[in-house]
């Protein structure tokens, strides 16, 4: 899989990912700025907030994810997701935009 990360200023970075990793883990491992993932994917921080650019085959937002998105540092939008919940599969190409602030 590949993840295309767009920063708030429009800069894009493409990262080769490993299937089974989340969009959050892929960002943290590759030093993509703006995705913190402070809780390590436990749905208790919302510092992995992203805007998912397009329709992808991910499970819908769970109740816990929905609650955390409400307290994200940058206001949520219709396409907001917590990137620790976006687990990549083979061949997938995912585009996300990183919000202005995570804290
Ligand atoms: Fe904490 Fe995603 S890493 S909610």
Q: How would you briefly describe this protein structure?
A:
Keywords: 2Fe-2S, Iron, Iron-sulfur, Metal-binding. With 103 residues, this protein is of the alpha+beta class.
Structure description:
Belongs to the adrenodoxin/putidaredoxin family. One of its GO terms (molecular function) is 2 iron, 2 sulfur cluster binding. Keywords: 2Fe-2S, Iron, Iron-sulfur, Metal-binding. Pfam families: Fer2. Residues 1-102 form the 2Fe-2S ferredoxin-type domain. It is a single chain. This protein is α+β, with helices and mostly antiparallel strands. The protein has one domain (2-97): Beta-grasp domain (Ubiquitin-like (UB roll), Roll), CATH 3.10.20. Helices cover 14% and strands 21% of the residues. It is built from two helices and five strands, in the order ββαβαββ. The protein has helices at residues 23-29, 63-69, and strands spanning 2-6, 12-16, 49-52, 80-82, 93-97. The protein has a five-stranded mixed beta sheet. The longest helix is centred in the N-terminal third of the chain and has 7 residues, at 23-29. The chain is globular. The protein binds FE2/S2 (inorganic) cluster.
């Amino acid at each position: 899989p590949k993840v295309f990360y767009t920063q708030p200023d429009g800069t894009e970075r493409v990262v080769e990912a490993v299937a089974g990793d989340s969009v959050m883990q892929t960002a943290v491992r590759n030093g993509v700025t703006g995705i913190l993932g402070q809780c390590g994917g436990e749905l208790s921080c919302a510092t992995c907030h992203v805007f998912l650019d397009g329709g992808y085959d991910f499970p819908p937002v769970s109740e816990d994810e929905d609650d955390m998105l409400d307290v994200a540092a940058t206001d949520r939008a219709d396409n907001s997701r917590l990137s620790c919940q976006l687990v990549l599969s083979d061949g997938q190409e995912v585009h996300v935009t990183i919000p202005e602030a995570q804290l």
